[in-house]
Design a protein that fits this description.
The chain has about 200 residues and is of the alpha/beta class. The chain has two domains: about 80 residues, Orthogonal Bundle (Arc Repressor Mutant, subunit A), CATH 1.10.10.10; about 110 residues, NAD(P)-binding Rossmann-like Domain (Rossmann fold, 3-Layer(aba) Sandwich), CATH 3.40.50.720. It is elongated. The longest helix has 19 residues. The strands form two sheets. Strands 6-7-5-4-8-9-10 form a seven-stranded mixed sheet. A three-stranded antiparallel sheet has the order 1-3-2. The chain has eight helices and ten strands.
């Protein structure tokens, strides 16, 4: 399957389905229908069937989906049937919160190193992490073969740090800085800007 041919909006909905299915499994539910799943996530049953059918036939007419089977398949499609090592760049308030967050590992991600360019922070600890010097970031990332990074740094330095991440072989960046990044075509960036989401919501108030 050519990943580029699947619309990104569909890929964006798969983790939502995954989360809802995991909740159902945790509650001891064995099977579900697109109708029931749709009620959990606020997406139409027809849209869910269409999304899932892009990757094959995972359900049966009349009996619905086996939750365990669909969970396994979605994890496989999203490549979170393994644990990905992640580098965290920026040890400010947001960086501290993410480094301490316990919810990544059971969803396929494990922060393995934290970097900052503030020499006063280098060598200090956040829980089990020792903050490392950003000057050594490229060689450390290359040596560890880390492919994913989270950026929690000011917008002013985000592009220059991103250039270094690309140089180090990082292929996916989760960016909390309120700025659009320029990256090569083979590098994927996702943006998380809380202010943007708040502005989107206030339209409806």
């Amino acid at each position: 399957m050519n990943a580029e041919k699947i619309p990104d909006i569909i890929i964006g909905r798969l983790p939502v389905y995954l989360r809802a299915l995991q909740r159902m499994a945790d509650n001891g539910i064995k099977t579900t229908s697109s109708q029931e799943l749709g009620e959990h996530v606020g997406i139409s049953a027809a849209q869910i069937r269409k999304d899932i059918s892009q990757f094959g036939e995972f359900g049966k007419q009349g009996t619905g989906y086996s939750i365990t089977y669909l969970l396994d398949k979605l994890r496989e499609i999203l490549k979170v049937d393994r644990i990905w090592d992640v580098a965290l760049i920026g040890a400010g308030d947001m960086g501290h919160a993410l480094a301490r967050y316990q919810g990544f590992t059971n969803r396929g991600f494990h922060i393995v190193m934290v970097f900052d360019n503030n020499k006063e922070k280098v060598g200090r600890k956040i829980d089990n992490f020792v903050i490392e010097d950003a000057d050594k970031m490229i060689e450390r990332l290359k040596a560890s073969n880390v492919k994913i990074a989270m950026l929690t740094i000011p917008a002013t330095s985000a592009q220059s740090v991103t250039d270094k991440l690309v140089q180090a072989g990082v292929r996916a960046i989760l960016n909390y800085a309120p700025i659009s990044l320029n990256v090569p075509n083979n590098v994927k960036v996702q943006y998380i800007d809380p202010a943007t989401h708040l502005q989107r919501m206030t339209y409806y108030l």
